[in-house]
Every structure is written in structure tokens, then in C-alpha cells.
Design brief:
seven-stranded mixed sheet; five-stranded mixed sheet; 28% strand; 11 helices; binds magnesium ion; 18 strands; alpha/beta
């Protein structure tokens, strides 16, 4: 995909109403700052080429420190000192962006933004030249007089509350800023410039959750996007039959029977893969690697596990730790546990001491006890990057 989007994050707001005594963008939300949440949405967006952050005067080093600590992939990030007004900040930032086709402006103080909303706004900008995220006004609107008495009720059916992102063809926004400067026009958002310049602006249906953090109660850390850690559970069982190899945790274990399945039937790796997918709410291995697909016949489950690691990685997570239990009457698992742990750690690119494998029997009861099959249980944590 072409990286043709430049992003400006105005982050120069003081945040005095939040009461932290530091600029709003630096206030923590869950395990990260508000700025990092907003930045991450654009860093992970496949069309982002460059990002310019407008920081509040005297806070350069604090912002620099956050940016240096980020995994930015192919995206470049620059800092620019914010101006007196938001408009001045954007104007400074525009001058620093490379000549890309599209520019998105997004308030750093709107960390609840989704990738879907960036896509929708950009798509509308591609059709209309400019697009802004907006939501229909929910409350009844009234005009009041100086004494706080109602003068009239305003028809709200055509009223929208304007959010960000606001996406523009770069040329168009540059022209509008130039014209506004000549005419000494003052506005509170960038779409107003483009409207003033006489161009169409499309209202893209935004999201009521995409609020601008202003008051302490806006710091909603319950949103699952901000959970620093998530947990998943996986369970798998395969039948023990003659003429199959017994493979668990990627280790071939000498035994008179093996596990039956479309793939190599490694029930331990399947349970672990399901736990990881479950933690990210990404379905199960059946969804991703269907057992009627010839590609996965006799598949090496270690390969599936590596793919699952990459799948959650693409969603901004890394695996934290794994804890699993094999339930098998025979053979003894103990001599193989270390090797299993080291295979799993290598496939998920995590430390060996983050992988725990245990084994137990079923005390001769049930299908495991009668050696008809082997069952595995696993839990996994994933951490947001
Ligand atoms: Mg299975």
C-alpha cells in the first residue's frame, strides 16, 4: 500500500481543566500517555508516511523522550513548537511535512480514535477533496440570552459536532492557509479554512466515543484498547491412534500411539495458539487455518504458532507469557518439557521463562485415563505494544 498520508497532531493544549499540572498530551491513560495512544493509531495505519507533532513551548525534551521510545516502523516523526493559537501550530507543522498527496489533522487529545475512522475519513477526502469526522448533535439545542433565558429552540436535525481526524488534499489545505493568513482569518478547526476558501467539505460519520479529553472523567481506561494486558484461554483434544507420531509442543515423543488429526495434531500447540488468538479476540485456529484446507494437511503446528504470533503482532500486541497443562495418562512427559518450552519460546520470540508447560494424568478416569486421547489446556497473556 502506498504511504501517501502526512499527519499533524496538534498537542500543544495546556490541559488545565484536567488538573494534572502538565500538558494534556502527557497525561497518563492506562499504561501510556494520551499522546502515545493517538500516535499509535497513526503509526499502525498502513498509509501513514510522516507525522508532525506540535508540542507546547518549553516541553520539547519530554516529547522527544516519548518519540524516541516508540517503535515507528517505516513512519518518520518530527516535532515542531506549537504557536500561540492552534492555527499557528498547524501552519508550522504543514511546512515540515513532505509533499504527500493527503494531510490528516488529528487532536492528540482524542486517543479513542479507531483505524476504521481514519480509513473512512480518508476515503471521503479522496472523493470530495476534504472530509471531517463528525457526529449528529444528540442534545436539544437552544439559544439563550445574556440573562440565561431561552430565546429560541434550534432545529438540531441538520447540526453536527465536529471531531478529528480532518483529512485534506495537501495542496488545498496549503492554499487555504495562505489565503487565511492574508485575510487574517481566525478559525478553530481546519475545515473552516477550506470552507472559507469555498471548497466542499464532506461530513464523515464519526464516533461518539472519539471524544476530546478535557475533564478527568474523560480518562476512560476501561476501553479495551487501553488495557495494558489481556488474557486468553485455549483447549484442545486429539484421539490417540496406531500408526501416527505423538507430537506435543513440537517434540516427537516415542510412544506406541500418536495423535490423529488433519495437521500434525499437536494438541498442546493448538491450545496455546487458541489462547493467544482468544486474548486478542481474533477467533480460533479453525478460523485462520481451516482443517478442510489442503494447505494445512499434515501442517507443522509450530508454523501455525509462528503465524498466530505474527497475527497478534500485527494488531499491536506481543505475547506476555504462556501457562499450559497436558493431560495424558501415558507416556511420561517430564523428559520432554524443557524442549517443548524452548520450541514455543523460539516460535513466539519470547523468553523461555515466559513459557510454562505442566503435565498431569487423569487418574485412569475418562477418555484420557483409558488412553483414548490427550487433552491440553492453556492460558496466554498478550501485552499492548
Ligand atoms: Mg487441534
Amino acid at each position: 500500500m502506498q504511504r501517501d498520508l502526512g499527519v499533524i497532531l496538534p498537542a500543544a493544549g495546556s490541559g488545565s481543566r484536567l488538573g494534572y499540572g502538565i500538558p494534556k498530551a502527557l497525561v497518563p491513560l492506562g499504561s501510556k500517555t494520551i499522546l502515545e495512544h493517538s500516535l499509535r493509531r497513526f503509526l499502525d495505519f498502513p498509509r501513514t508516511h510522516s507525522i508532525v507533532i506540535a508540542y507546547p513551548k518549553t516541553y520539547r525534551s519530554e516529547f522527544q523522550k516519548i518519540v524516541s521510545g516508540l517503535e515507528t516502523g517505516e513512519v518518520s516523526i518530527a516535532l515542531v513548537e506549537g504557536g500561540e493559537e492552534r492555527q499557528d501550530s498547524i501552519s508550522n507543522a504543514l511546512g515540515l511535512l513532505p509533499e504527500l498527496k493527503w494531510v490528516a489533522v488529528h487532536d492528540a487529545a482524542r486517543p479513542y480514535l479507531t483505524a476504521e475512522l481514519i480509513s473512512k475519513t480518508l476515503a471521503d477526502a479522496e472523493t470530495y477533496g476534504s472530509a471531517v469526522a463528525a457526529v449528529p448533535v444528540r442534545d436539544t439545542l437552544k439559544r439563550g440570552d445574556r440573562n440565561g433565558l431561552v430565546v429560541e429552540t434550534i432545529d438540531r436535525s441538520a447540526m453536527w459536532s465536529i471531531q478529528t481526524p480532518q483529512v485534506f488534499e495537501r495542496e488545498l489545505l496549503m492554499e487555504a492557509y495562505k489565503k487565511a493568513e492574508n485575510d487574517e482569518l481566525k478559525v478553530t478547526d481546519d475545515a473552516s479554512m477550506v470552507e472559507y476558501y469555498g471548497k466542499e467539505v464532506k461530513l464523515t460519520l464519526g464516533d461518539h466515543r472519539n471524544i476530546k479529553i478535557t475533564y478527568p472523567e474523560d480518562l476512560n481506561t476501561n476501553s479495551t484498547n487501553f488495557l495494558p494486558m489481556r488474557i486468553g484461554f485455549g483447549y484442545d483434544v486429539h484421539q490417540l491412534v496406531e500408526n501416527r507420531s505423538l507430537i506435543l509442543g513440537g517434540v516427537t515423543i516415542p510412544h506406541k500411539k500418536g495423535l490423529l488429526g488433519h495437521s500434525d495434531a499437536d494438541a498442546l500447540l493448538h491450545a496455546i495458539a487458541d489462547a493467544i488468538l482468544g486474548a486478542a479476540a481474533l477467533g480460533d485456529i479453525g478460523t485462520h487455518f481451516p482443517d478442510n484446507d489442503p494447505e494445512f494437511k499434515n501442517a507443522d503446528s509450530r508454523d501455525l504458532l509462528r503465524r498466530v504470533g505474527r497475527l497478534v503482532g500485527d494488531r499491536g500486541f506481543r505475547v506476555g507469557n504462556i501457562d499450559a497443562t497436558i493431560v495424558a495418562e501415558k507416556p511420561k512427559m517430564k523428559p520432554h518439557i524443557k524442549m517443548m518450552q524452548s520450541n514455543i519460546a523460539a516460535d513466539l520470540q519470547i523468553d523461555e521463562n515466559a513459557v510454562s508447560i505442566k503435565a498431569t494424568t487423569s487418574e485412569k478416569m475418562g477418555f484420557v485415563g483409558s488412553q483414548q486421547g490427550i487433552a491440553c489446556h492453556a492460558v496466554a497473556t498478550i501485552l499492548s505494544r
